[in-house]
UniProtKB/TrEMBL annotation:
Biased composition annotated in UniProt, kind: Basic and acidic residues: 582-595
Principal subcellular localization: endoplasmic reticulum
Domain J: residue ranges: 104-165
Species name: Hippocampus comes (Tiger tail seahorse)
Gene Ontology cellular component list: Sec62/Sec63 complex
Disordered, as annotated region: 489-613, 720-755
TM region positions: 15-35, 77-94, 190-213
Family matches, as SMART domains: DnaJ (SM00271), Sec63 (SM00973)
Xref: Gene3D superfamilies: 5' to 3' exonuclease, C-terminal subdomain, C2 domain, DnaJ domain, Sec63 N-terminal domain-like domain
Cellular compartment(s): Endoplasmic reticulum membrane
Protein name per its UniProtKB record: Translocation protein SEC63 homolog
Keyword Amino-acid biosynthesis in annotation: no
UniProt feature, compositional bias: Acidic residues: 596-608, 728-755
GO BP of this protein: nervous system development; post-translational protein targeting to endoplasmic reticulum membrane; SRP-dependent cotranslational protein targeting to membrane
Length: 755
C-alpha cells in the first residue's frame, strides 16, 4: 500500500502563485467599488448647479470639502501601490520555470517511442561517451541517462514504467502545498500559532461582534430600535400631536444622545452657549420634567432645531452640532410617519386603542419641509427664495399685487413682477432662475376596482385602486415664453417675426390655471356627439333584432323613446337612399351590418384584453425594476446636505381626520410616475368624499389636494347553485335509465358468450 507524502515549497516558487491569486481576488473588486469618483466630473456637476444652488449651504460645504479633502488622493495612492505589488508578483510568476515534468526515458535518450533494443544501446553508448564524469561530463545528466537505459533494457523496470510511470514501481502519493517550508518549521511554530490565534480568535470575533451589535441596534432604515420604540410610545400616548409637542418628541431621539450614538457630542461650552440661545428663543418648555424631554441631550437638540427654524446665528462651537441634528431630522420624521401608519393599521385591524390622528402625520410631513427650508410654520413660503427678507414681504402682500405664495409670484406678468421686486436690483434674474427650478406637479387620478367584471362599479368591501399619475415640470416650463427667455438668457432667442406671431398666444396663456379647460370642454362635447352618432345605428339595429327574435325582452321606456328619436332622425336623413333598394336588399344589408357589428365588438373586447395584459405587465415590470432615488436636487438655503425632491402621496378623509390609504413615499419622480393606492371600500353603501393629497418633503407651499368622490353600491349576492351546474330531474332519470339499460345489455352479451 503506497503511502502519502506532503511536500512544502522549499524554494518558495509555488507560493508566488498563491500570493498573486490572493492579492488579485482582493484588489480587483476593491478597485471597482471603492475607487474614488472622478473629481473632475464632480466639479463639473457642481459647476452646472452653481447658477441655481450657488448660495445654498450644502453647495458651499460640498465645494469646500472637494477642494480641501485629501481622502480621494490617499485612496488612489493606496490602490496604485496595491496594483504595483500585483504586477510585480505577476512578473515574478511569469519568470518561474516549471519544475515538475513527466518522466519519459525515451525523451532522456532522445529516442522515438518504440525504438528497438539495438538503437537504445547505440544511443546510450554515444551519450555515455559524451556525459560520463570520467570524460568531464555532468554526473547528474549521466545518472539520468543510465536510469533511462536501465528502464528500457530491464524487463521489470520497463513494465513498471508502463504501468506506474516510474521504473522503480509504485511510489508514495505526493501532495504539494503552495506555502513556504518556514511556516511549518519548528523554530517558527510559536510565531505562526500567535498569528493564527490573533486572526481567528481575536480579530474575527471582534469584527463579527461589532457587526452583530450594530445590526441588532438599528432598523432597516438605519434608525435606532430604541428611537422607534420611543416614537411609538409617544404617538400612542398622544394621538393628536401639535407641532410643539412633535418637535419635543423628535429631539428626544436617541440618535442625539452621546451614550447611544458616537456622532453626537456634549461639549463643555454647551453650559454657556445653550442658555443664551434659550433666552433668545423664549418659551420652549425648559421646565418640563417629563423624561426624556428634560435630559441635556434632548434640550440641546431642541434648541438647535428651533434656532435653525428661526434662522438664528449660532456660535462656531454649536454649528457642527446643529448641522448634525438638522441632517438627521428628516430620516427621523420619516420613521415617525412609518410608526404612525403602523399604529393606524393595528387600530383598524384589532381595535382597542386610538390611532394617531391625521393631523399628527401631516405635522410630521410639514415639519420635514420646515427643517429642510429652515423656516417656521407661520412664515411665508416666499422666504424660500434667495434675498427675500421679512421686510420685503410688505411689497408682495399689498393690495396691488396680493402675492402670498410661489404660485402667485409666478402668475404675475413680468412687468408687474419687476416693479414689485424693484428692491432686488441685479439679483432679480437669479431669483427668477431659482423660482423657475421649483417643481410644478400635475396630478391625474383614475378610480377603479381591478379584477372585477365592472371596474367602475364600487361595491361595499371591495378593494379600490386609485391610480395616480404624477407629471413633474419646472415652473419655468409653465411660465410665458417671454419669461422663459428672460430666465434663460444664454439660449438663442427666436426671430422677431416669430415672437410677434406668438405674442397673441403668449398673452392668452395663464400660469397655474388649467390651460386646457376649453379644449377639454370641446373634447367632451365631441365625445358626446361621437357617442350619439355611434349609438344611433346600434339602437336601431337592436330594435330590429328585438322585433325579429321571439321571446326577447322588451326594452325599457326610456330606451324606446331614444330609439324612436333616433329612427326618426335616421329616416329623415336616409329616406332618399332607402327608397332605392328593395326590402330584400335592405334585409341583406342589415345582416351584413349586424355581422360587422359583431366583429367590431369582438375587436373591442380584444383591445380591452390587450390593454389589461399590458397594464399587468407594466405593473410587474415596475415591481421588478429598481429605480434610483436620485431625482432632482432640492433648493434649500440652510440645509447642510444635498437633498433630493421626494413626495408623499396618500388618500385621507379630512372630515373624520383619518387615513384611508397609507402614505406612499415617492422617491423616483423625475418626469412622470404612476402610483397605485389601494384601500378597502366602506362596508356601508352611500357617497363618500375623500381627498388625494400630495405633499413635498422639501418645499413649503407646493402641496396639492384633489377631491375624490366615492359612490359605494351594495355588493352582489353570491349564488349558492350556479345554473350551469343545475341538472334537471328528468335528465337525471334519463341518465339513470340509460345506465341501467347499458348494464342489462352487457349482462345479455355475457350470457351469450357463456352459451
Amino acid at each position: 500500500m503506497p503511502g502519502q507524502q506532503f511536500q512544502y515549497d522549499d524554494s518558495g516558487n509555488t507560493f508566488f502563485y498563491f500570493l498573486t491569486s490572493f492579492v488579485g481576488l482582493i484588489l480587483i473588486p476593491a478597485t471597482y467599488y471603492l475607487w474614488p469618483r472622478d473629481q473632475n466630473a464632480e466639479q463639473l456637476r457642481l459647476k452646472s448647479l452653481r447658477r441655481v444652488h450657488g448660495r445654498c449651504l450644502w453647495y458651499r460645504l460640498r465645494l469646500l470639502k472637494s477642494q480641501k479633502s485629501i481622502v480621494p488622493r490617499l485612496k488612489k495612492a493606496a490602490f496604485l501601490f496595491g496594483w504595483l505589488i500585483f504586477l510585480l508578483l505577476a512578473y515574478k510568476v511569469s519568470k518561474l520555470d516549471r519544475e515538475y515534468q513527466e518522466y519519459n526515458p525515451y525523451e532522456v535518450l532522445n529516442l522515438d517511442p518504440g525504438s528497438s533494443l539495438s538503437e537504445i544501446k547505440k544511443q546510450y553508448r554515444v551519450l555515455s561517451l559524451k556525459f560520463h564524469p570520467d570524460r568531464g561530463g555532468d554526473e547528474a545528466t549521466f545518472m539520468r541517462i543510465a536510469k533511462a537505459y536501465a528502464a528500457l533494457t530491464n524487463e521489470q523496470s520497463r513494465k513498471n514504467w508502463e504501468m506506474y510511470g516510474n521504473p522503480d514501481g509504485p511510489s508514495a502519493t505526493s501532495f504539494g502545498i503552495a506555502l513556504p517550508a518556514w511556516i511549518v518549521d519548528q523554530k517558527n511554530s510559536m510565531l505562526v500559532l500567535l498569528v493564527y490565534g490573533l486572526a481567528f480568535m481575536v480579530i474575527l470575533p471582534v469584527v463579527v461582534g461589532m457587526w452583530w451589535y450594530r445590526s441588532i441596534r438599528y432598523s432597516g432604515d438605519q434608525i435606532l430600535i430604541n428611537t422607534t420604540q420611543l416614537f411609538m410610545h409617544f404617538m400612542y400616548k398622544t394621538p393628536n400631536m401639535n407641532m410643539k409637542r412633535l418637535g419635543m418628541v423628535l429631539t428626544a431621539a436617541f440618535e442625539f444622545d452621546p451614550r447611544s450614538n458616537k456622532e453626537a457630542t456634549i461639549r463643555p461650552a454647551d453650559n454657556i452657549k445653550v442658555p443664551l440661545l434659550i433666552c433668545k428663543l423664549g418659551n420652549i418648555n425648559v421646565k418640563k420634567k417629563e423624561p426624556p424631554f428634560c435630559y441635556p441631550y434632548s434640550l440641546k437638540a431642541r434648541v438647535l432645531v428651533l434656532s435653525h427654524l428661526a434662522r438664528m446665528d449660532v456660535s462656531e462651537e454649536l454649528k457642527e452640532d446643529q448641522r448634525f441634528v438638522v441632517r438627521k431630522s428628516p430620516a427621523l420624521l420619516q420613521e415617525m410617519i412609518n410608526v404612525g401608519c403602523q399604529l393606524t393599521m393595528m387600530a383598524n385591524s384589532r381595535g382597542g386603542f386610538h390611532a394617531p390622528r391625521l393631523v399628527t402625520i401631516e405635522n410630521c410631513m410639514k415639519l420635514t419641509q420646515m427643517i429642510v427650508q429652515g423656516l417656521q410654520e407661520s412664515k411665508s413660503p416666499l422666504l424660500q427664495l434667495p434675498y427675500f427678507e421679512e421686510e420685503h414681504l410688505r411689497y408682495c402682500i399689498s393690495k396691488k399685487y396680493k402675492v402670498r405664495s410661489l404660485q402667485d409670484l409666478a402668475r404675475l406678468k413680468d412687468s408687474d413682477r419687476r416693479s414689485m421686486l424693484h428692491f432686488m436690483g441685479e439679483k432679480y434674474d437669479e431669483v427668477m432662475a431659482v423660482l423657475g427650478s421649483f417643481p410644478h406637479i400635475t396630478m391625474d387620478t383614475k378610480l377603479q376596482v381591478l379584477d372585477d367584471e365592472d371596474s367602475s362599479n364600487i361595491t361595499a368591501g371591495s378593494i379600490v385602486t386609485v391610480t395616480v399619475t404624477l407629471t413633474r415640470k419646472r415652473m419655468v416650463e409653465v411660465f410665458e415664453k417671454e419669461q422663459e427667455a428672460l430666465l434663460c438668457p444664454g439660449e438663442e432667442t427666436a426671430p422677431a417675426e416669430e415672437v410677434q406671431g406668438d405674442a397673441s398666444k403668449a398673452k392668452a396663456k395663464q400660469v397655474w390655471q388649467n390651460k386646457n379647460k376649453g379644449t377639454k370642454k370641446t373634447a367632451k362635447s365631441k365625445k358626446k356627439k361621437l357617442t350619439k352618432k355611434k349609438t344611433t345605428p346600434a339602437l336601431a339595429k337592436t330594435k330590429q333584432a328585438n322585433g325579429s327574435v321571439a321571446g326577447s325582452e322588451a326594452p325599457s321606456a326610456a330606451k324606446e323613446e331614444e330609439e324612436e328619436e333616433v329612427s326618426d332622425k335616421g329616416s329623415e336623413s336616409d329616406e332618399g337612399e332607402t327608397s332605392k333598394y328593395s326590402p330584400r336588399e335592405r334585409d341583406e344589408d342589415s345582416d351584413k351590418q349586424s355581422d360587422t357589428e359583431v366583429d367590431e365588438m369582438a375587436g373591442d373586447d380584444e383591445e380591452e384584453w390587450k390593454a389589461l395584459q399590458q397594464s399587468i405587465q407594466r405593473r410587474e415590470r415596475a415591481l421588478l425594476e429598481t429605480k434610483s432615488k436620485v431625482t432632482h436636487t432640492a433648493y434649500s438655503l440652510y440645509y447642510p446636505e444635498e437633498k433630493q425632491e421626494w413626495w408623499w402621496l396618500y388618500i385621507a378623509d379630512r372630515r373624520d381626520q383619518t387615513l384611508v390609504s397609507m402614505p406612499y413615499h415617492v422617491c423616483t419622480l423625475k418626469d412622470t410616475e404612476e402610483v397605485e393606492l389601494k384601500f378597502p371600500a366602506p362596508s356601508k353603501t352611500g357617497n363618500y368624499q375623500y381627498s388625494v393629497i400630495l405633499r413635498s418633503d422639501s418645499y413649503l407651499g407646493l402641496d396639492q389636494i384633489k377631491p375624490l368622490k366615492l359612490e359605494v353600491h351594495e355588493a352582489k349576492a353570491m349564488l349558492d347553485n350556479h345554473p350551469q351546474w343545475d341538472i334537471p330531474d328528468t335528465e337525471e332519470e334519463d341518465e339513470e335509465q340509460e345506465d341501467s339499460d347499458g348494464i342489462e345489455e352487457s349482462e345479455d352479451g355475457d350470457d351469450e358468450d357463456d352459451d
